[in-house]
Design brief:
The chain folds into 2 domains: about 1-50, Orthogonal Bundle (Arc Repressor Mutant, subunit A), CATH 1.10.10.60; about 50-185, Orthogonal Bundle (Tetracycline Repressor, domain 2), CATH 1.10.357.10. About 70% of the residues lie in helices and about 0% in strands. The chain has 9 helices and no strands.
Length: about 190
């Protein structure tokens, strides 16, 4: 079935508005999202039959938007700066997803994680490769390990502690970063 242009525009507008509204208040109602998007409730429900479907679609779209930013970030600054900026944005996105915990079933959380894992690991790999190429990031890092390391950042509320944790994690990825053990590449 071919989706009409106006239906695609409505869906995109709903997702855009929902991302902003849910980031501000995770309990925003679907009717409030429809009103903010300038569509009727029936239009919203045709695209997203329930809250979980909307939250998953928002998460999916936001992860894709973040992944799509990699070339822009790498074009505007050094890879290490791009990596830090990208992880700060990813942490914010995951904090929002965690804040919407009541809107997602266990299966919904698992689906969101499964869908976003591949693109996120690919993006991390691209950032690491760019840093390896310019000598700023130590070679041989596993994107899975880096993702696990960075998970500490989104486990704390946004603020000074999260910034310190992010700096500490990024410093550990640098080519000169050998850590307290004096070993490199571990």
């Amino acid at each position: 079935m071919v989706e009409r242009a106006d239906a695609r525009q409505n869906r995109a507008r709903i997702l855009e508005v929902a991302a902003e509204a849910l980031a501000r208040d995770g309990s925003t109602s679907l009717n409030a999202v429809a009103k903010l998007a300038g569509v009727g409730a029936g239009t919203l429900y045709r695209h997203f039959p329930n809250r979980e479907a909307l939250v998953l679609a928002v998460h999916r779209a936001e992860v894709q938007r973040l992944v799509d930013r990699i070339p822009e970030l790498l074009a505007t600054g050094p890879p290490l700066v791009a990596l830090r900026a990208w992880f700060a944005q990813l942490a914010g996105l995951i904090r929002i997803k965690l804040g919407l915990g009541d809107a997602l079933t266990t299966a919904g959380h698992e689906a969101a994680n499964a869908e976003s894992y591949g693109p996120v690991i690919g993006a991390i790999g691209a950032l690491l490769a760019a840093g390896e190429a310019d000598g700023s990031i130590r070679p041989g890092l596993d994107p899975d390990d880096v993702l696990m390391l960075m998970s500490s950042v989104w486990r704390v509320p946004e603020g000074a502690q999260a910034d310190r944790l992010l700096d500490l994690a990024v410093d550990g990825l640098t080519a000169s970063g050998t850590g307290r053990t004096g070993r490199s590449g571990c």
